[in-house]
Amino acid sequence: xxxxxxxxxxxxxxxxxxxxxxxxxDSQVTMMFWYRQQPGxxxxxxxxxxxxxxxxxxxxxxxxxxxxxxxNLTFSTLTVSNMSPEDSSIYLCSVRQGFGNTIYxxxxxxxxxx
Amino acid sequence: AQxxxxxxxxxxxxxxETVTLSCTYDTSESDYYLFWYKQPPSRQMIxxxxxxxxxxxxxxxxxxxxxxxxxxxxxxLKISDSQLGDAAMYFCAYRSTPPRDGSGSRLTFGxxxxxxxxx
Lengths: 114, 119
Prior knowledge:
The complex is a heterodimer. Chain A is mostly beta strands. Chain A has a domain at 31-98: Immunoglobulin-like (Sandwich), CATH 2.60.40.10. Chain A contains no helices and eleven strands. The termini of chain A are far apart. By secondary structure, chain B is mainly beta. Chain B has a single domain (3-118), classed as Immunoglobulins (Immunoglobulin-like), CATH 2.60.40. Chain B has no helices and twelve strands. At the A-B interface, strand 4, strand 5, strand 9 and strand 10 of A face strand 5 and strand 6 of B.
């Protein structure tokens, strides 16, 4: 399976600021995904990022709030803009790879907005 | 739209014993994938086991096995010889079989079952 690294692993952010999360994969992958896990809840897909095209956002998520870059086949960033306490969540990068196109996850980035 | 339901918010098991976690799903599709993921306190999502819907044989990975009942839309996880390291949140997830263009790879997750392993 792919090795997926995320930075930062954890951060405390001030209300109104923006933070960019980086996701690095050790192999080339076509599709990368960003999920959000709010405290005590399950995971929700934010968007799908294909290299060379605009990210596709799920209902309830917009590009102005969660801009995504995908400059190459091994890297992606998610920015959480103008943060509020409601954005306090774990943000997980994931990729589709291998037999059965299984989805693998990075370690997650745990953001707390104060 | 597909939905995934885990009816057990919490479960506990004695070390070395066997525990079964329940998952049901709703779909109109005939071909899809089902997964169990484990999320320990580190928060990383770790794949435990995968089942292709077209396969009648239940998937097995060491101490982990599933009971896949396609007609009943049920996908339970059995953990045998439970170990302290098995303590985690377990999520059941559904994914459609994606078309060639890669769309439809969204995972739909259940709400999770928190497993405690007692020594």
